[in-house]
Specification:
Length: 243
C-alpha cells in the first residue's frame, strides 16, 4: 500500500510451494489447509502454533507476568489493551512469535517490561503505543533476532524495541540482530539511556541502531553504545540504481 514497484529495485518471491528448497522450509496452502515442509527425510520435531495470542489482557489492573516461557504465538506473545494499567512483565522468555513478543496498545498506563529475553519475533520484540501520561518502563531486557525474515511483518517500520508512549524510560537493554531499527522512540518525553545495540539494519536500510520520530519534546538519548549498523548492502545498491 502506497509503494509502487520500480525497475531495478529488486524483488523476491514468497507464498508459493515452488520456493521451498531448504531443509524445514514450509508452505501453507489456504485452499487445502495443509502444510508442506521441505525435507530430505521424514520431518521430525515440527511444531505448529494454535493460538494467535498466548496471553491477552483487556482492562485489567495490577497484573504481574513473571518467570514464564512463551513460545510460538501466531501474532503476539503478550498482548495488553484498553486500560490494562500497572502491568509488570518480568523475567520471562518470549520466543518465536509471528509478529510481536510484547505489544501494549493504547490506554495502558504505568507498566514495566523488565529483565526479559525476547527473540525470534518477526516484527517487534517489544512494541508499545500510548499517549501522554503512559509512564512506561522498558529496562534490562535482552532482544535478539527481531524482524530478520524478509517479507514477514507489517507495513510500518519495525524495531526490536518500538515505543510511541510518553513518558518512557528505555534503559540498560541489549539489542542484537535487528532487521531494521534496534530501538525506535517516537513521541514526546522519552529517555533512551545506556543501551547496547549491535547489528541493526541487517535486512534493510534508511534506519539506525536508535531511530526517532515525532515532535521530540523533551527527548533524551544518552550513554548508549551502537555498533555494526551499516545498512543492508543490497538495499543500498537498489537505491543507487534507481537514482
Amino acid at each position: 500500500e502506497g509503494l509502487e514497484p520500480k525497475n531495478t529495485w529488486g524483488f523476491f518471491i514468497q507464498n508459493d510451494v515452488r520456493t521451498l528448497d531448504t531443509q524445514n522450509e514450509w508452505y501453507y496452502n489456504p485452499s487445502t489447509k495443509k502444510l508442506r515442509i521441505y525435507s530430505t527425510s521424514q520431518p521430525t520435531n515440527v511444531y505448529v502454533p494454535a493460538n494467535d495470542y498466548c496471553i491477552t489482557l483487556s482492562g485489567k489492573k495490577y497484573v504481574t507476568i513473571e518467570k514464564l516461557t512463551i513460545i510460538g504465538a501466531n501474532n503476539v506473545g503478550i498482548y495488553a489493551e484498553l486500560s490494562t494499567d500497572n502491568l509488570i512483565v518480568n523475567n520471562c522468555l518470549i520466543n518465536k512469535c509471528g509478529l510481536y513478543g510484547v505489544k501494549m496498545l493504547n490506554w495502558c498506563d504505568d507498566y514495566a517490561i523488565t529483565n526479559n529475553v525476547v527473540k525470534n519475533c518477526n516484527y517487534s520484540g517489544i512494541h508499545s503505543y500510548g499517549y501522554l501520561n503512559t509512564n512506561e518502563t522498558i529496562t534490562n531486557n535482552t532482544l535478539d533476532s527481531c524482524n530478520m525474515i524478509i517479507g514477514i511483518g507489517e507495513y510500518y517500520a519495525p524495531a526490536a524495541i518500538m515505543s510511541y508512549a510518553s513518558p518512557s524510560l528505555i534503559q540498560y537493554n541489549i539489542v542484537d540482530h535487528s532487521g531494521y531499527n534496534g530501538i525506535m522512540k517516537a513521541g514526546e518525553y522519552g529517555e533512551v539511556r545506556n543501551n547496547l545495540i549491535t547489528n541493526s539494519l541487517l535486512t534493510t536500510n534508511d534506519g539506525g541502531g536508535i531511530y526517532t520520530a515525532g515532535s521530540h519534546l523533551n527527548m533524551i538519548i544518552d550513554g548508549n553504545i551502537v555498533s555494526n549498523t551499516f545498512g543492508n548492502l543490497m538495499s543500498e545498491i537498489f537505491a543507487y540504481k534507481q537514482d
